[in-house]
Amino acid sequence: MNGFEKRRKEKKEAILLAAKELFKQYGYHKVSIAEIAKRASVSQVSIYNFFESKENLKNQLMKTLWEDYYHTILSVINSEETVQKKIEKFFYTVAVYSRNYSANFVAESLRSQLKTEENTTEDQLEKIRQAIVFLIEQGKSEGAIKDTITTDAMLNLIDMFRFYVIHNPQASLNYDQNPHLLDEMISLLLTALLV
């Protein structure tokens, strides 16, 4: 990568980072291109050259955030950790993702992202689901996860937690104000699943 390409990449990353921070803090609709440009230390023209519109910028940001989340979740599930540790890290990853990227912005944007890139996102969601099912079955066979509860019931519990932290902005605020609350919630979930 030559110097020009490197500077161009750094500028684009600065714009995405500034947009992410501002959207998280104020919400997508309350942030202007001028504010993003100022935060990223670039011109508004640069933003339009890279993304054409604020909507395209948001879509690119959501794609980047989703890809990061997707790969992080699969990395946690496919790690060499114990089943218990993988499940615990999975729950923390879901919660931290929501806290870091503002539940309102993520929930609103993820719905539109699912519509625009339906096949890719649906495939990735299915891969995550299959990895979780494999993890649950592995845990049951190793005696780490309760075998008296069906895999479907466990998947529903996991989905309820994910839906709660992603679609409930108050949850993120509660966890920020009382970090032990998240620990307690995850402890309750682990108690429900683990032997």
TrEMBL record:
* Ranges of residues in domain HTH tetR-type: 9-69
GO molecular function terms noted in the UniProt entry: DNA binding
Annotated DNA-binding ranges?
A: 32-51
* Keyword tags: DNA-binding
Q: Which SUPFAM superfamilies match?
A: Homeodomain-like
One of its Pfam families is TetR_N
Task: Name it.
Answer: Bacterial regulatory proteins, tetR family
Organism annotation: Caproicibacter fermentans
